[in-house]
Design goal:
The chain contains three helices and six strands, in the order βαββαββαβ. By secondary structure, it is α/β, with parallel strands linked by helices. This is Threonylcarbamoyl-AMP synthase.
């Protein structure tokens, strides 16, 4: 049974909703807790939480005692990379590169859209911050199964 730890963010949605969206290609934006390091997203009261459905990164997360703060391995506004060789131009700027295998179907354009980012910080509402690769099923789950209302951005 999967539950999102409430230590670093304030979860105001049912556990079942979390299980419907995570792990997977969705990033949930929630209110951060006071326990989360203040240097992570210092100018906002929100934090993005993602649990990928990839065996390597989930095993790595289990081995760590706290949250992992990660960024995508691509330049902002460019397509997501799916293999380590695709961001080879960034290697000189990185301290460590771990090849855990492809993180999606390299032939699928949808896999390069990144995660769907949805703000769930307002009770009963949601805001799509980035459509990403899982927009349609995410919105269907939020609206039809849980009755959340889209909030205009």
């Amino acid at each position: 049974r999967f539950l999102l730890p409430c230590r670093y963010c304030q979860v105001n949605v049912p556990d079942e909703l979390l299980r419907d969206l995570l792990p997977g290609p969705v990033t949930l934006v929630l209110k951060r807790s006071k326990e989360l390091n203040k240097d992570l997203n210092p100018f906002t009261s929100l934090v993005g939480v993602r649990i990928p459905n990839h065996p390597f990164i989930r095993e790595l997360a289990r081995a760590c005692s706290g949250p992992l703060a990660l960024t995508s391995a691509n330049v902002s506004c460019q397509a997501s990379t799916l293999t380590v060789s695709e961001f080879q131009d960034l290697w000189p700027q990185l301290s460590l590169i771990i090849d855990g295998g492809p993180i999606g179907d390299v032939q699928s354009p949808e896999c390069r859209l990144g995660s769907t980012v949805v703000d769930l910080s307002v009770l009963g509402k949601f805001t799509i911050i980035r459509p990403g690769c899982a927009l349609t099923p995410t919105v269907e789950i939020l609206r039809q199964k849980y009755g959340l209302i889209p909030e205009s951005s």
